[in-house]
Amino acid sequence: MSYRSRPAFAVARPGLTRRRHVDMMRVCSAACS
């Protein structure tokens, strides 16, 4: 996934990304596995 490719997106909305961060981590882990 392009999770690390978009650091600005995570910094732009920390409040909204904090919840998506968990989802992104799961998706990345599943895709990277």
SSE run: HH
Q: From the alpha-carbon coordinates, what is the Rg to the nearest angstrom?
A: 10 Å
Sheet-strand content, in percent, reads: under 5%
Q: Helix/strand-derived class?
A: mainly alpha
The percent of residues in helical segments reads over 70%
In one word, what is the shape? rod-shaped
- Indicate how many domains the architecture comprises: 1
Low-confidence stretches: none
Q: What about the largest sheet? A: none
Distance between the termini: 12 Å
How many helices does DSSP assign? 2
Number of strands: 0
Quote the average pLDDT: 64
In a few lines, what is going on in this structure?
By secondary structure, the chain is mainly α.
State the main characteristics:
33 residues; 2 helices; mainly alpha
Write the layout of secondary structure elements.
Elements: H1 7-12, H2 14-32
Fold and architecture overview:
The model has no long low-confidence stretch (mean pLDDT 64). The chain has 2 helices and no strands. The protein is 76% helix and 0% strand. The protein has one domain. The longest helix is centred in the last third of the chain and has 19 residues, at 14-32. By secondary structure, the chain is an all-alpha fold. It has helices spanning 7-12, 14-32.
